[in-house]
TrEMBL record, chain A:
It comes from Methanolobus vulcani. This is A-type ATP synthase subunit A. It is a peripheral membrane protein. The gene is atpA. GO terms for biological process: proton motive force-driven plasma membrane ATP synthesis. NCBIfam families: ATP_syn_A_arch (TIGR01043), PRK04192.1 (NF003220). InterPro entries: ATP-synt_VA_C (IPR055190), ATP-synth_a_Xtn (IPR031686), ATP_synth_asu-like_sf (IPR023366), ATP_synth_asu_arc (IPR005726), ATPase_a/bsu_AS (IPR020003), ATPase_F1/V1/A1_a/bsu_N (IPR004100), ATPase_F1/V1/A1_a/bsu_N_sf (IPR036121), ATPase_F1/V1/A1_a/bsu_nucl-bd (IPR000194). ATP binds at G226, P227, F228, G229, S230, G231, K232, T233. It catalyses: ATP + H2O + 4 H(+)(in) = ADP + phosphate + 5 H(+)(out). The keyword Hydrolase does not apply. Residues 5-66 form the ATPase F1/V1/A1 complex alpha/beta subunit N-terminal domain. Has multiple subunits with at least A(3), B(3), C, D, E, F, H, I and proteolipid K(x). It is found in: Cell membrane. Belongs to the ATPase alpha/beta chains family.
Automatic annotation (TrEMBL), chain B:
InterPro entries: ATP-synt_VA_C, ATPase_a/bsu_AS, ATPase_A1-cplx_bsu, ATPase_F1/V1/A1_a/bsu_N, ATPase_F1/V1/A1_a/bsu_nucl-bd, P-loop_NTPase, V-ATPase_su_B/beta. The keyword Transferase does not apply. GO terms for molecular function: ATP binding; proton-transporting ATP synthase activity, rotational mechanism. This is A-type ATP synthase subunit B. The gene is atpB. Belongs to the ATPase alpha/beta chains family.
Length: 576, 459
C-alpha cells in the first residue's frame, strides 16, 4: 500500500493514505528514509524518522513494510559496530564515506560471509523454540549456538553441516518450515524465557570499589548517575573491558563520537583477562552518538538489549552498558514534545517510568526456553542535569535498579577515581553474594569488607568534628582511624583506569590489599595501647610504601617485601 | 520554480505562517521580499499541505501580509573556497569587509552531516598552548572540543587570543587556519579580537564570521554552522589544521530559547528548549580527526556561565558534550592571578591520549595527578584554617597548605605573553612538588621520582 507525506516537522512526519499498525516500519519520501509508526489518529499516522528529514516535502510517497522494527540475529554480530537501528557503521562508511548521509539501507548481518555450521541434531529429532540445532565458531572463543526461533517447533526433516551464508537454509522441519542461521526479532518485544532466578553470582569487574564494596550480581541491574566529568563513561568502559562475562553489548547512546572511536581503537588491542583473546571478539558496539538522529537514538537501547537477549538464550552471561540512559530518555522527550503529548515532570512523557522499568526488566538470570542458564546484567549511566539526583530520570531509575554507584563531582575534582561516593552508594546484592565471596575469595573477606565500610562511615562523622576543631584536637585512637581511612581511600578505593597494572585488579589482589591495610591497623592499634607515641606509629615507612604496591607488576613479591618491613618496624617500636 | 507567494496569514515573533503553497521541503531556505524592496532570509520549520512555518533570520521587523515569499528548493548552503582565508563575513556568510563575494569552489549544506564514528580517528596530537594550566594539567589535543567556561568580566578573551597566538604542535609545520565566529558579542569585543588578529598577522590565516550584539538574534542560529562548515571544508578538502573559536555560546543558546518561545514549545529546564542538548551536540560534535585525512577541526569556544553557575543548563549541557572544559575563576582573578584558570573543575578528557612518553614526557600524568591532589587538599585546608587557625594543623597539613599557594603563584600564574614549553611547565611542577615531603608524593611512581625529582636527579 502506498501513502503520502502530509506534514514534516523535524524527525516527526505525519503520513496519510495508508493504514499501518503501531510500530510498523515505513519508508518515507523519494529517498525511502526509514521510520517507525508511533501514533495513529484517524486517517493519519505519525512516524518517527531515523534519518535527517531536511528537504522532504508533503506529497512525497510513503511505503509500509508491514513489519515492526527488528534486528537480525545470527553469527557476525560480534566485533560489529552498529548505529541505533543496526546498520553496520563500517558498511555505511563504504557506501557513503566519512559522513553519514541518508536513504542508505544496510543489513545488520553480512549476507556474503560464509560460516562453518556444525549440526548438533539430526533428522527425526524433535526440536522446539530456543533449542540449539547446531553451532558456529563465531570468534575464537565464542561458540555461536544456532537456535530454533522461539515461536517455532517441530521435527527435523533435514539438516546439513557445512559452509553457509546466514540466510541460507540449514534445516527443514517436517511441516516445511525452513530455518537459517539468521533470525529476526522485533526490538520492542522481550525474547521469551522459561523462568527467571534470583541472581546469585557476582559480576567480577576487577574494580575494587565495585567488587569490594558495592558488587553487582550477574543478571542484576545497576545505575551510575553523575554530573559530567565524574567518570560514568570511564567506569562503563572499565566494566566492558574487565568484567568476567562472555559477551558485552556496549551502547553509546547520544554521547560522544570520539569515545566510540576510542573503544574501536582499543578493544582489538586489549586482552580479555579470562581468555587472553582480544576484547573485541566478545563485544558488540552500538553507536548512536549525540549528533546522529534522535529517533535512532531512542531505538538504540532496544537494539542493544535484543542482541543481549539473543546471546543470553544461548546460555551466556552477557553484560550490557548503556551510556547514557538519560540521552535515551531525552530522545523520548524530544519525540513526545513533537507529538504535542501532555508533558509530565520536567517535560518528560508520562510513560518515562514505564519505559525505564520495561527496559531494566529485560535484565536477569534466566533459564532459557531450552533450559540453558544465561544472564544479562544491565548497567546504565545516568546524566542528571546539573548533577542533581532529584531529577526524574535518576529517580525513576533508582526505583528499579538494585545497585547504585553514585558519582561525586567533588571526588572527581580532586582526582579521586573512581569517584564513587562510598557513603551514598549501595548494592542490594551484598548480602545475597556473601556466601559466594566467603567460598570463592576468603572466609574472612566479608568481615574485612564490613569493617572497612564501618571505618569509612566513622571517618565522615569524625571529619565533621575536625572541621570545627582541627585534627590535632582528636583523641589518638580517633586520629588513627582517620589515618586508616586515608589509607583505605588512597590505597584501596582509588584505582587509576589508565595505569597499565592498576586498571584491572583480580579479586585475590583486592583481598590482599585490604588485608594489608587491616594488618597495619591492628598493629598500630596494639602499639597505641602499649603507649607508643602516635607520631612514631604514623611514621612507619612501610605504611607509605604500601601506597604503591598496587602499581607493581609483581604485586605479591612487592607486597611481601612491604609487609616484612612492616613487621620489623613495629617490632622495633615494641608493643606488638 | 521561483514562484512568489503572497499568502502570509500570521506573523508571530521571528515566525511567519503561510498557506496555499506548492509542497515545500522541510528545512528549505526561504527568501522574503519586503514591500520596501529589501530581502530577508528564513528557513522552513514545519511544512504540511495546509500551512508552512518559516523562521526569519533577520527578524520579522517590516514584514507584512503584502510581503512575497520565495522558496529556494534547497537547504541553506555556504559558498566555500580557499580564498575565504583572510575574509570577514557576516553571521549569515555575506562579505562585510568590502571585498568581493566569495567565488565558490563548492556550496555546502551548513548543517553538515554527522561524522561516522567508525571514520573517526581518536585525537592524540598534543597541542602546546604555552599555558601551564592547560598543557600541564588539562592538555588540549588536535581534534578536541575544549571550551572555556568563564563569567562576565573575566579575561576569557585574552586567554583565547593567547592560545590562538601560541598554539602549536611541537615539531610540526603543517598548514593551519583559524575560524572565528562571533555570536552576539559587542562591537568592542569583536574589535579586540580583530585588532589582535591584524597585529599578529593571524588574519591572513583566518576566516571571520561576525554576528554582533545588535545583529538579529535568529541569525545567530546559523552563524556557528557557517563557521563550522568553513572549518570542515578547509580541514578535509584542504588538509589544514583548523582551530575554531566560537564566542559566545551563551548568546547562541539565548537565541535558541527565544526561537523556542516564539514557537510556543514546551520548555525544558529553566526555559531552554528540551532539544538543546541535541542542538548543541550538532555543533560541538563537528570537531575531530578523520582516518586517512590530513586536516583536523579543533574547537576552543567561549561560554560565559550566567551567574558563574556551572550547573546552569548552558554550561551543563555543554560539559556533557565537550571533551572537557577550562574553567576561569573569579576568585583567582580577584587575587590578581593571570590566567585565572581553576584546574579543579577543569578537565581535558583527551589528556590521557595526548601525553606521556613520545608525546610529552613519561612523568606527565603522575606530575599532574600529584599536583591536583595536593592543590585540592590545600584548598580544603584553607577553609579549615579560617576556622581553627593554622596552628591546629598538623605538620603535614601545613606543608600542603603552603603547596596550594605555591601552585597558584608559580604554576598557574604566568605572563600574558609567556609561552612556556611543556618542559618548562613540568619543571615548574617538579619545583613546587619538591617543596613537599617525598612521602606525600604517593601518586608518582618511584622511577619518576628518581628521574626527575630535584633532590634525586643526577646533575
Ligand atoms: N577510574 C578512573 N581512573 C582515572 N581517571 C578517571 C577514572 N574515571 C574517570 N577518570 C577521569 O575523569 C574524566 C571524565 O570521566 P568520564 O567517564 O568521561 O566522565 P563522564 O562520562 O561522567 O562525563 C576522564 O577523562 C578521566 O580523565
Ligand atoms: Mg560520559
Amino acid at each position: 500500500m502506498k501513502g503520502e507525506v502530509y506534514r514534516v516537522a523535524g524527525p516527526v512526519v505525519t503520513i496519510m493514505g495508508i493504514k499501518p499498525k503501531m510500530y510498523d516500519v515505513v519508508h518515507v519520501g523519494h529517498e525511502g528514509l526509514m521510520g517507525e509508526v508511533i501514533r495513529i489518529e484517524g486517517d493519519k499516522a505519525t512516524v518517527q524518522v531515523y534519518e535527517d528529514t531536511s528537504g522532504i516535502k508533503p506529497g512525497e510517497p510513503v511505503v509500509n513494510t508491514g513489519m515492526s522494527l527488528s534486528v537480525e540475529l545470527g553469527p557476525g554480530l560480534l566485533e560489529s559496530i552498529y548505529d541505533g537501528i543496526q546498520r553496520p557503521l563500517k558498511v555505511l562508511q563504504e557506501k557513503m564515506g566519512d559522513f553519514i548521509s541518508r536513504g542508505v539501507t544496510a543489513n545488520g548481518l553480512d549476507r556474503e560471509r560464509v560460516w562453518e555450521f556444525k549440526a548438533t541434531v539430526s533428522s527425526g529429532d524433535s526440536v522446539k523454540g530456543g533449542q540449539t540445532i547446531g553451532v558456529v565458531q563465531e570468534t575464537e572463543n565464542v561458540e555461536h549456538k544456532i537456535m530454533v526461533p522461539p515461536t517455532v517447533s517441530g521435527t527435523v526433516e533435514e539438516i546439513k553441516s557445512g559452509k553457509f551464508k546466514v540466510d541460507e537454509t540449514i534445516c527443514v522441519l517436517t511441516d516445511g518450515t525452513e530455518i537459517s542461521m539468521m533470525q529476526k526479532w522485533p526490538v520492542r518485544m522481550p525474547r521469551p524465557v522459561d523462568k527467571k532466578f534470583i541472581p546469585k553470582r557476582p559480576l567480577i569487574t576487577g574494580q575494587r570499589i565495585l567488587d569490594g564494596l558495592f558488587p553487582v550480581a550477574k543478571g542484576g541491574t545497576a545505575a551510575i548517575p553523575g554530573p559530567f566529568g565524574s567518570g560514568k563513561t570511564v567506569t562503563q568502559q572499565q566494566l566492558a573491558k574487565w568484567s568476567d562475562t562472555d559477551i558485552v553489548v556496549y551502547i553509546g547512546c547520544g554521547e560522544r563520537g570520539n569515545e566510540m572511536a576510542d573503544v574501536l581503537n582499543e578493544f582489538p588491542e586489549l586482552q580479555d583477562p579470562k581468555t587472553g583473546r582480544p576484547l573485541m571478539e566478545r563485544t558488540v558496539l552500538i553507536a548512536n552518538t549525540s549528533n546522529m538522529p534522535v529517533a535512532a537514538r531512542e531505538a538504540s537501547v532496544y537494539t542493544g538489549i535484543t542482541i543481549a537477549e539473543y546471546y543470553r538464550d544461548m546460555g551466556y552471561d552477557v553484560s550490557l552498558m548503556a551510556d547514557s540512559s538519560s540521552r535515551w530518555a531525552e530522545a523520548m522527550r524530544e519525540i513526545s514534545s513533537r507529538l504535542e503529548e501532555m508533558p509530565g515532570e520536567e517535560g518528560y512523557p508520562a510513560y518515562l517510568s514505564a519505559r525505564l522499568s520495561e527496559f531494566y526488566e529485560r535484565a536477569g538470570a534466566v533459564k532459557s526456553l531450552a533450559a540453558e542458564e544465561g544472564s544479562i546484567t544491565v548497567i546504565g549511566a545516568v546524566s542528571p542535569p546539573g548533577g542533581d539526583f532529584s531529577e526524574p530520570v535518576t529517580q525513576n531509575t533508582l526505583r528499579i535498579v538494585k545497585v547504585f554507584w553514585a558519582l561525586d563531582a567533588k571526588l572527581a575534582q580532586r582526582r579521586h577515581f573512581p569517584s564513587i561516593d562510598w557513603l551514598t552508594s549501595y548494592s542490594l546484592y551484598t548480602q545475597g553474594l556473601s556466601d559466594w565471596f566467603a567460598e570463592n575469595v576468603a572466609p574472612d573477606w566479608v568481615p574485612l569488607r564490613d569493617n572497612a565500610m564501618d571505618l569509612l562511615q566513622q571517618e565522615s562523622e569524625l571529619q565533621e568534628i575536625v572541621q570545627l576543631v582541627g585534627s590535632d584536637a582528636l583523641p589518638e585512637d580517633q586520629q588513627l582511624i582517620l589515618e586508616i581511612c586515608r589509607m583505605l581511600r588512597e590505597y584501596f578505593l582509588q584505582q587509576n583506569a589508565f595505569h597499565p597494572v592498576d586498571t584491572y585488579c583480580p579479586f585475590d589482589k583486592q583481598y590482599k590489599l585490604l588485608k594489608a591495610i587491616s594488618k597495619y591497623s591492628d598493629m598500630a592499634q596494639a602499639s597505641l595501647e602499649a603507649g607508643i607515641p602516635m607520631k612514631d606509629i604514623l611514621s612507619v615507612e612501610s605504611k607509605d610504601d604500601l601506597a604503591k604496591v598496587k602499581f607493581e607488576e609483581n604485586f605479591d613479591d612487592a607486597l611481601n617485601v612491604v609487609m616484612e618491613k612492616m613487621d620489623k618496624e613495629f617490632a622495633a617500636l615494641g608493643g606488638n | 520554480m521561483t514562484k512568489e507567494y503572497k499568502t502570509i496569514t500570521e506573523i508571530a515573533g521571528p515566525l511567519i505562517f503561510l498557506e496555499k503553497t506548492e509542497p515545500v521541503g522541510y528545512g528549505e531556505l526561504v527568501h522574503i521580499n519586503l514591500p520596501d524592496g529589501t530581502t530577508k532570509r528564513g528557513q522552513v520549520l514545519d511544512t504540511s499541505a495546509d500551512v508552512v512555518a518559516v523562521q526569519v533570520f533577520e527578524g520579522t521587523g517590516g514584514l507584512n501580509e503584502e510581503s512575497g515569499v520565495v522558496f529556494s528548493g534547497e537547504t541553506i548552503k555556504l559558498p566555500v573556497s580557499k580564498d575565504m582565508l583572510g575574509r570577514i563575513l557576516s553571521g549569515a556568510g555575506e562579505p562585510l569587509d568590502g571585498g568581493p563575494r566569495i567565488v565558490p569552489e563548492d556550496r555546502i549544506d551548513v548543517n553538515g552531516a554527522s561524522m561516522n564514528p567508525y571514520s573517526r580517528m581518536p585525537p592524540e596530537d598534543f597541542i602546546q598552548t604555552g599555558i601551564s594550566t592547560i598543557d600541564g594539567t588539562n592538555t588540549l589535543v588536535r581534534g578536541q572540543k575544549l571550551p572555556i567556561f568563564s563569567g562576565s568580566g573575566l579575561p576569557h578573551n585574552e586567554i583565547a587570543l593567547q592560545i590562538a597566538r601560541q598554539a602549536k604542535v611541537p615539531g610540526s609545520t603543517e598548514d593551519f587556519a583559524v575560524v572565528f565566529a562571533a555570536m552576539g558579542i559587542t562591537n568592542e569585543e569583536a574589535q579586540y579580537f580583530m585588532e589582535d588578529f591584524e597585529k599578529t598577522g593571524a588574519l591572513e590565516r583566518a576566516v571571520v564570521f561576525l554576528n554582533l550584539a545588535d545583529d538579529p538574534a535568529v541569525e545567530r542560529i546559523i552563524t556557528p554552522r557557517m563557521a563550522l562548515t568553513a572549518a570542515e571544508y578547509l580541514a578535509y578538502e584542504h588538509d589544514m589544521h583548523v582551530l575554531v573559536i566560537l564566542t559566545d555560546i551563551t548568546n547562541y543558546c539565548e537565541a535558541l530559547r527565544q526561537m523556542g518561545a516564539a514557537r510556543e514549545e514546551v520548555p525544558g529546564r529553566r526555559g531552554y528548549p528540551g532539544y538543546m542538548y541535541t542542538d548543541l551536540a550538532s555543533l560541538y560534535e563537528r570537531a575531530g580527526v578523520i582516518k586517512g585525512r590530513k586536516g583536523s577541526v579543533t574547537q576552543f569556544s567561549i561560554l560565559t556561565m550566567p551567574g558563574d553557575d556551572i550547573t546552569h543548563p548552558i554550561p551543563d549541557l555543554s560539559g556533557y558534550i565537550t571533551e572537557g572544559q577550562i574553567v576561569v575563576s573569579r576568585e583567582l582573578h580577584m587575587k590578581g592571578i593571570y590566567p585565572p584558570i581553576n584546574v579543579l573543575p577543569s578537565l581535558s578528557r583527551l589528556m590521557n591520549s595526548g601525553i606521556g612518553e613520545g608525546k610529552t614526557r613519561d612523568d606527565h600524568k603522575a606530575v599532574s595527578d600529584q599536583m591536583y591532589a595536593g592543590y585540592a587538599e590545600g584548598r580544603d585546608l584553607r577553609g579549615l584554617v579560617a576556622i581553627v587557625g593554622k596552628e591546629a594543623l598538623s605538620e603535614r597539613d601545613q606543608r600542603i597548605l603552603e603547596f596550594a599557594d605555591l601552585f597558584e603563584d608559580r604554576f598557574v600564574r604566568q605572563g600574558r605573553d609567556e609561552d612556556r614549553s611543556i618542559e618548562d611547565t613540568l619543571q615548574v611542577g617538579w619545583d613546587i612538588l619538591s617543596e613537599l615531603p617525598e612521602a606525600l608524593l604517593t601518586r608518582i611512581d618511584n622511577k619518576y621520582i628518581e628521574k626527575y625529582h630535584p633532590a634525586h636527579k643526577s646533575n
